[in-house]
Amino acid sequence: MQTLHQALLLQKLYLLKSIGFDYYDLQFQKPLQTQFPSQNQKNLNQAIKECQLCPQKLSQPHIGLCNPHSKLLFLTITPLLDLQTRFVSKGALMLKKIIENVFALPLQQVSILSLLKCEIPKNTQEECTKNCMGYFLKQLEFSQSKTIVILGEEVYNALTQDKTPYKNIQGKLFKWNHLKLFPTFSLAQLLRQPELKIQAHKEFLTLKKDLYETNQ
Fold first, then answer.
1. Pairing of strands 179-184, 174-176
2. DSSP secondary structure letters along 191-203
3. What is this structure's pTM?
4. CB atoms within 10 A of CB 95
5. Is 177 helix (H, G, I), strand (E, B) or coil?
6. For residues 53 and 100, what is the distance between their CA atoms, to the nearest angstrom?
7. What's the pLDDT score for residue 56?
8. Domains by residue range for the chain, with CATH
9. Using CA of residue 202, residue 207, residue 210, residue 214, what is the dihedral sign?
10. For the Uracil-DNA glycosylase-like domain, which residue ranges apply (predicted)?
């Protein structure tokens, strides 16, 4: 029975590929922490605030912006907003302009989250990202976002563990489990190299078109 199921699944994948569907063999990381009760978002927020999993953290945990029924979820490695959920850094202010001016969305219709919930030394980020993954996946569930905007290669690698060269997938929208992923430039890249904003704008318009068509 299992062999038959696998054969039918493979047949379906070949059919999808033949009609132009991009297939990526990606899997969600399973949450490494399940001990916190998370029946609602308020409970989850409290668990994040009280988290002591990483002794090397350099700040208090950041919850980020997690709105229910988000149309888009923007994902970074480290926290982008401050502890009061304010847009104070250059990167945060730039993203705010992108959300409001390019996508024409109010902040209440997006979520802005990070894989790491605290400021963490660079040499321990990989280990700590695994500790935080359960929190992020729960936030993703509560946000109900169907599209994740991946802000940079580092975020993509940490989330998916996929080895596909980033240049091959950047600016493209593809299915990943029950979600859509849209890998693009990191905010740090756009700040360091302003000339990349032209290409980033084109990529965002691709996503905006899909978002518009999906909500028709």
1. antiparallel
2. HH-GGGHHHHHHH
3. 0.83
4. 22
5. coil
6. 35
7. 84
8. 40-214 (3.40.470.10)
9. negative
10. 64-203
